[in-house]
Amino acid sequence: MDDYLSLHRKRRPNRVLATLALTATAALIAAACSGGAESTTGERPDLPVAESSSESPLPQVTVWDVGESEWVQFADLIPSDKPVLLWFWAPHCPACAAEAPGMREFAESHADELDVIGIGTQDDPVMAQEFVDRHGIAFPMLWDETFETWNAFGITAQPATVLFDGGGTVLEGWMGGLPEERVLELIEDPTLATT
Q: What residues are paired with 175 via a beta bridge?
């Protein structure tokens, strides 16, 4: 029995060293593999707001346009010549992934009646790009690293949507799935809005 215990005690330092070596190797591999997942957006500039956007209800914050790979001023998106539907999403969100095909179809089907703009946050711009590519989304998809866009509208979970008339007045907002018929009803007659 003494021989077994002494042999076990002698091997323990080797196991500790082996565990440390494996941990260090795993850390090096993880660091090497994560190199491609770094932000490709560069440093966020402080973009000025267009003069026409001085009356915009949107916060003056610079956001990343995922499809165009450039920084844009969020406040410049409204006012618009038609209603705007903001879709709040996150790359990791299963409910957003489930809603994305329907949102894409809705945006395509009603492109003459309204503009749909996605505004995502959380995660990183690489994951945002992967989300857009995976779901084949062609309407503008933005990413906000600051949460300022979400905070401005009290958005605390996703998906969510907010509908504006062309002048920038919030008509209504919804948490969860998009109520398509209600959106179309409000586009047709904004006086039906409850807000």
A: 160
Alpha helices in 71-173 (DSSP H): 94-109, 125-135, 148-152
The dihedral sign for the CA sequence 64, 65, 67, 68: negative
| Strand, helix or coil for residue 112 | coil
Q: Does the pLDDT at position 106 exceed 50?
A: yes
Secondary structure class of 64 (helix, strand, coil): strand
| H/E element, 103 | helix 94-109
User: Cβ-count burial of 22 within 10 angstroms (0-12 exposed, 13-18 middle, 19+ buried)?
Assistant: exposed
Instruction: Answer yes or no: is 146 within a domain.
Output: yes
Separation of alpha carbons 11 and 27, rounded Å: 24
At position 58, the amino acid (one-letter code) is L
Phi-psi group of 154: left, alpha or beta (phi > 0 → left; psi -120 to 50 → alpha; rest → beta): left
CATH no. for residue 73? 3.40.30.10
Mean pLDDT value of segment 67-81 = 86
Alpha carbon distance 195, 192 (integer Å): 9
Are residues 95 and 139 both part of a single domain?
A: yes
> Is residue 67 pLDDT above 50, yes or no?
yes
Q: What's this model's pTM, rounded to 2 decimal places?
A: 0.73
Separation of alpha carbons 50 and 75, rounded Å: 8
- Cα–Cα nearest to 161, from 191, 136, 186: 186
Are residues 125 and 82 both part of a single domain?
Answer: yes
Q: How confident is the model at residue 57, as a pLDDT?
A: 81
